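Section 5.1 Outputs to date
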Amino acid sequence: MISIPNDSEYNPFYKTYVSKIDNNDLLEFLTEQSESLPELLRANSDKADYRYGEDKWTVAEVLNHINDAERVFSYRAFAIARGEKQALPGMDQNDYADAADTSNRDFESLIKEFEAIRASTLALLSSLNEKQLSNEGMASGFPVTTRGLVGIIAGHAVHHVQILKERYF
């Protein structure tokens, strides 16, 4: 079990994400997401190219962003759990989205990519002990623990699922 992080374990910017988690067992929560998110996306695959505003991402681009962010947050969790002392860089989500070019991607391939990334994330997180979860490092200029990053991973996906349900589906 990995419990929800304390507010002191991550950048306050991410509080809006972490506060959306409704299960104190983050491994269980992430496992449930690994099933529910692909189900939601497959049920709405006909809307993969839909965007609700001219300057907004398509559903496929939102999913690609979830995938990119989970990769980055998982790498940070891995590095900090292993005792990395170097500050880890930030990411500009819009630059990443622009460089991804999802227009040439099959939507199902993006869903399968999420499933693979999440399976890898769960394998990593399941292997960590309490000391590794409590390790603190620097990412995007702020202190963060491994457990803080686990909360960010879970909450970030919830945040985007809510947006998908409210504005896209």
